[in-house]
Amino acid sequence: MSKRTKWDTKGDLDESKNLPIYQHKATLQQAVKDNSFLVVTGETGSGKTTQLPQYLHQAGFWSNGKIGITQPRRVAAITVAQRVSQEMHCSLGREVGYQVRFDDCTTQDTVVKYMTDGCLLREILADPVLSQYSVVILDEAHERIVYQNKWWDKASKGRCVPLKVVVMSATLETDKLSVFLGGCPVFTIPGRTFPVTSKFSCAIGPKDTESSVYVKEVVKVALDVHTSEMAGDILVFLTGQSEIEKACDMLYEKAESIDYRYDVQDHKVEGLLILPLYGSMPTDQQKQIFQPPPPGIRKCVVATNIAATSLTINGIKYIVDSGFVKQLNHNSRVGMDILEVVPISKSEALQRAGRAGRTSAGKCFRIYSPAFWEKCMPEYTVPEIQRTSLTAVILTLKCLGVHDVIRFPYLDRPEERFILEALKQLYQCDAIDRRGKVTRLGELMVEFPLPPGLTRALLQAASLGCEDLLLPVAAMLSVENIFIRPGHPEKQKEADKKHRQLGVQAGSCNDFTMLLSVFEKCKASDAPSAWCKDNYIHWRALKSAFSVETQLREILLRLQKRDFPMEKFDGNKSELFRRCLCTGYFTNVARRSVGKVFCTMDGHGSMVHIHPSSTLFDQEAQLDWVIFHDLLVTSRIYIRTVCPIRYDWVKDLLPKLHEVDVYELSSVAREEVTDEEVAKWVTKEAAKRQTEGSAEDVF
Ligand code: CDP
Ligand code: MG
């Protein structure tokens, strides 16, 4: 174990010379000079992300423009930029910076810029030839290299110096990547790893998918490793923030009672340092993860899947694998994207285990049984583009001028029904017209890093001059959960009571106004962090919501300077808020059928319940129509962040849920059609609706 407790920059620089990529520095620099497109692959941890941009910087590429590197996740972009700025001896935001959704840490001096895919796309929209860049590196390309094909075709034309595009990936799908880039060369960094022995256990079988069961088990196994294995750090894989926090709490508690004289095998080990790692963690805490622990202390990092490919932590010798991951999946039962906890794939399990063998032989403890491996785990992980809603991707493609989104050469082609679903949603929120062309509203929507429904509601509010109501709500829905629910039953009761009080104070009680009220109350408070503590609210989450709100406001102000559609509203002011929500959320509408059961009206007709965390829970009897922000699927389907509405407000919108025939929409989108053809189609649609009965009858 390392004896250093603080960053020893000199030592780290030397460390970077030990990375497998270092021997290939000159060859890589030359390869990028010689080729417009290049694929680089190498095992996770070989130094691709941190080193290649520096090599290109040293080779002088910056003199023609920035070196941009995209990351699929924001945490990766931030932490890697931090690391690289240290290696390059500059303060973060100067030569080396990052830009992620809602956080821009770059200056005029920045020449090495880490960013998320979304940020790059937004830059492409503003400047299709990417004139500020000399090189763009698409990192972890296997994750989501969807829509990038078209832009570099465009970007390479109309520039004095051609743009260099490097695509990096840890997987072996390099041939596919090379073909995608028109058959460019592939550079493979030879690996250097040590054997990892993996062991199954019988604790988790095919039926044990309850979070509480596997969290308890990983804690037990991690403690076993700590007490019975030789020195070396532990990496535990769990699925998300709340689980990770729970596991850390349990670990703290149990680690306290260890007697290091008797309980621990390796006498050099004298303590355990427990560190959580998940996406929405504050940046200063993330830094700590990469620092070597003090002498004699074993580090135990409890992480989400982010530690599997995007981030490499040095010194890890033991892996504790829960076998689960939280994934955004398109759920066809309810017709929406839902975050679900699912078993990992076998290839993912191998990748996780491999994290233990970077510097010496390692061990991987799988808490699941061989039967679980056989029965529950798929061979490979399906790329995100193939399993999630494509609305953002399709809208961006359309704004980039790709009209035929069906025949677009995707790297990982999504199923056609997902593309059709996205077209339908975009049409429903007025982002595209019947011909599949982007509308003025669509051009505005693509600027916001928010889901389309929420953006639509926000733009509606802005056009009616009441954005102050929607901006905080949009911000609150963009950060992690703000309500704290402690594990202790007594405290839980108290927290629930406080939250209920906040709800009551919010006047017209619904979950959206509740978010607004928490935001405003905290903002107005003299001691916001104390206010949060007192009300069982995550201060950290709220702080990010404040910052997100400011940034959304900036985007909106920028758009409002151009010709921004304005409307008038004559109705009751107090309705305004909910009616704006309806414009975006009418696709998520449900009506109470019997008792506490609601039925969604989007054609899926799912039976849903109001989630217990809602302010409207237990008041179902008084409700009729509601809209909701999202769904949670467990043994039941729950709707979360709920707001009662009146049928009147969605009446004119609801036909849109049914009138559009996606096949028509996409085939219209395929070719340039004449006005007459569209007119013919519209008449046909209208006739069809008549025979099916009016929307009023349907509802
Ligand atoms: O991209 P690839 O997986 O090939 O490797 P990398 O992310 O560039 O990691 C190279 C080395 O930098 C590893 O040893 C990491 O542990 C280290 N690193 C770090 O210490 N702190 C960071 N924030 C990021 C990487
Ligand atoms: Mg990497």
From TrEMBL:
One function term, GO molecular function aspect: 3'-5' RNA helicase activity
Pfam families listed in its UniProt record: DEAD (PF00270), HA2_C (PF21010), Helicase_C (PF00271), OB_NTP_bind (PF07717), WHD_HA2 (PF04408)
EC numbers: 3.6.4.13
Domain Helicase ATP-binding: 29-190
Signal sequence interval, chain numbering: none
Domain Helicase C-terminal per the UniProt entry, residue ranges: 222-401
PANTHER family: ATP-DEPENDENT RNA HELICASE, ATP-DEPENDENT RNA HELICASE DHX40-RELATED
Family: Belongs to the DEAD box helicase family. DEAH subfamily.
Protein name per its UniProtKB record: RNA helicase
Originating species: Oncorhynchus kisutch
